[in-house]
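Meet my pick.
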Amino acid sequence: MNLIEKLYTLMIFLAVVIGLALGQVSSIQIHADRLITPFLIVMLFITFLDIPLVNVMQAFKNVRFTVTSILINFVWTPLLAWGLATIFLGNQPSLYIGFIMLMVTPCTDWYLIFTSIAKGNVALSTAILPLNLVLQVVLLPIYLLLFTQTTGMVEPTYLLESIIVILLIPITLAGLLQIVLKKSTLFSERVMPTLRTLPMIFLALAIVAMFATHGRLLFQHLDMLGWLLAPIFLFFFINLFVTQSIGKRLRFCQSDRVSLSLTTLARNSPLSLAIAMTAFSDQPLIALTLVIGPLLELPILALISQILLWIKQEK
């Protein structure tokens, strides 16, 4: 483990603190959101660059993992989210809807870097990503109808933009560069080992930008933080236990169990936020819930990645 990996948790904490501090400067707070997507694109480009395309194609053949992940993400997880929302947020309708929208949409971008940090099977996690994206878009209105008696409309242009910008551009560029440099031992043996540390740095920069953009909202609605803390914390750690237990029972190797856990744990708040802003424009607290969620999620994922590393070292 290199120095950056050892200091990763500290980096995440400092990124949160720096982001909150920068967010108090109006000119920075207004423009910081423009940096989030570029940082994520660079982060994913380097992450994809480190994954041999052959491994990704082979990962699609792992039917057991795919079926298990889909059942956990789209059957068990929505039921868990509904149960937690009912227990903790039943008297807060906006927070209730926002919490469910956050928790039924699996992440489609930066969970890959947490998977890499925790020494999971990144190729396998990448292979399941497109299916997660399609299913969450198709099923979100159904979940809203079942659990909140509400229907939401997905903005097609935003969905297309998310697919192209966040996923297709970095993975295509990485694949093309791999083809061009496939015979270059200099790149694979000297350049790539150096680049492997950069995704963590760009993730930290994305976190700084996110907290700089939304940190003021957190300070203005600290009571919401109190309401959301318990259900969000329980969601992540119940699912960590469930996924590790299921992976062990199905005899997945440790790296595949890490992938299963993080594919299930990380949430796709940008997509949910876009839907909330269009479907519930008259209820801003729903969108605010989807802003606060990641502010709690990111430090928890950083902690869980270290727990998964510890589990791996104990084996």
